[in-house]
Amino acid sequence: MLYELRIYTMHEGRMEAILQRFSQHTLSIFERLEIKVYDFWIDQTGLPKLYYVMEYKDMEERQRLWGAFRQDPEWIEVKRKSEESGPIVEKIEEIFMNRAEFFIR
């Protein structure tokens, strides 16, 4: 399995917008496209950051699924509407990981 840690840093004052976009739209689009969110966190210290982990079979699956997501008409419209007041996400970090063989979950 391949895991991807995605870290989103929001523009000032846009945290609520990203939370609404994920809870009301993005997660259901992921589900429809069979994109698996493994876990999801909101920064505890008050920084305008979200952290979530995606799970894929391999990098090929990851590329295919994200390609489908970026081209999805519902996503394109949701993103456009949610950013009418300005951009939400300032920075996205993508970290790819494999679970250590000695760790059993």
From TrEMBL:
Q: Which InterPro entries match?
A: Dimeric_a/b-barrel, NIPSNAP
Residue ranges annotated for the NIPSNAP domain, each copy included: 3-102
Q: Name one Pfam family in it.
A: NIPSNAP
Q: Which domain of life is it from?
A: Bacteria
Query: What is the name attached to this protein's record?
Result: NIPSNAP domain-containing protein
Q: Which organism is it from?
A: Paenibacillus allorhizoplanae
